[in-house]
Structures are given as structure tokens and as C-alpha cells.
Amino acid sequence: MADLDQKTQQTPPKPTVMLICILGNRYSEHFLRSWTELVGYCLTHNIRPVLANICETPFFIQKNKCLRCDMHKGKEQVPLNGEMDYDYVLWISSGCVFTTKTLQRLLDMNRDVASASSLMKHNVNCFNFITDINYEENKSYSFMGRDKVKAMVEQGTGECKVDYVDMNFVLMKKGVLETIQYPWFGGDHDNLNGETLFFQKCKEHVIDVYVDLKEQVCIENTVIL
């Protein structure tokens, strides 16, 4: 009995399965360094990483195909066709530079959808998220200003609930995609990346989206290797 108890105690815990979807096909040396460190982090923290990378345009098709969608199966289909049990989906832009702390911060937040923050690629005075959107109205919205984010952090605010965020580094729990149903991402001429549809569905289904204000990632111009 003592030997049996010892063997039971030595049984390693079930690994966390994380589907990592890399969006894009241009990788800098900085991204590759971040990626290598991320894989090493997963392997030393009982996380089993599973890579998905489909390079197609428009980008919303790329996102859906990373989840192995079948347009003929309709809205009742589930990610990965239900063939792989998973715990998280991590979306990473190929132009994103990050550290392992970025992932750990999002895991610690324990939100259904959690995102790292970043400055806008073409406007360093704004961050990549919008706090409040009325999707019933056809109007423009402003991204959060840099000074306002700085003030929030100085006041001790570490995370912020939002209605939209550019998906540069986003972690979501299993159950989110199953709830909003296929198509998870969809676009038109004004929304080719398909992310607006996803966040609109999250709001409709009361799935909260949070952005980490303290742990920021960098978005860079990349080159094809």
C-alpha cells in the first residue's frame, strides 16, 4: 500500500493544453527569440503547446482555419472539430515581440479573454483597445490614449475591461469559442481581420474581455526570412 501511495503521489499532473495560433507569415529575429522562449516556458511549466499557422487572406479566414473550421458544417461546429481537448487558445501576431512574463500575466488574470496591451503600430499616442462600443450604431470610436493609460497604471489599475482589442497577444479559455459559435471571425471590406465580429459576439454573450495595462508587448515591422 505504501508503494502504491508513493506512485500515486509521483504521478505528474495533467498538462495544460494550449493551442497557439500564429497570425501572419513574416517573422523577425526578435519574434523568433520570443517564440523560442515561450516554447521553453511551456515545456517547463506543464503546458503542452500545439501550433497552428495558416497563411491565407483575408485574415478572418486565416483565424477560422487555425481552429480547423469547415464552412459546410455550420454554426454548431466546435473548434478543432472536437478532435483535440484543449484548455486555452493563444493568438499571437507574427509582428509581436513579447516575453514569457506576458503569458504568465494573462494566465494569472484568469479571465475568459485576456489580452496584453500595445501601442498602435501607426500611432504611438494610442493603445490597441477601445473600452466601450455600441455595436448597434455605425460610428467611429477612439482607441485609448497613451496618457490615460499611464494615469490609470499610476493609480494602481492593472487591467481594464474593454469591448475591443487588436489581437496581437490574446489568451482565451476553452468555452469562449464554443459559446459564440461559428463563424468565430468574419469580415467585410471594412473589417478584413474579422476581429470586430468576434468581440461583438463576446459582448452579446456577456463574455468579458480584459486588457493587461502593465505588461505590454511591442509590434514591429517585420521582414520575410
Q: What is shown here, in short?
A:
With 225 residues, the chain is an alpha/beta fold. It has helices spanning 2-10, 29-44, 59-66, 100-109, 146-154, 176-180, 195-204, and strands at 16-23, 47-52, 88-93, 96-97, 113-117, 119-120, 123-127, 129-130, 159-162, 164-165, 169-173, 209-216, 218-219.
Please, could you describe this protein's structure?
The protein has 225 residues and is an alpha/beta fold. A seven-stranded mixed sheet has the order 2-1-3-11-5-12-9, with helices on both faces. It has a two-stranded antiparallel ribbon with strand order 4-13. Strands 6-7 form a two-stranded antiparallel ribbon. The mean pLDDT is 89.
Descriptive key words:
225 residues, alpha/beta, Spore Coat Polysaccharide Biosynthesis Protein SpsA, Chain A, 7-stranded mixed sheet, two-stranded antiparallel sheet, 7 helices, 13 strands
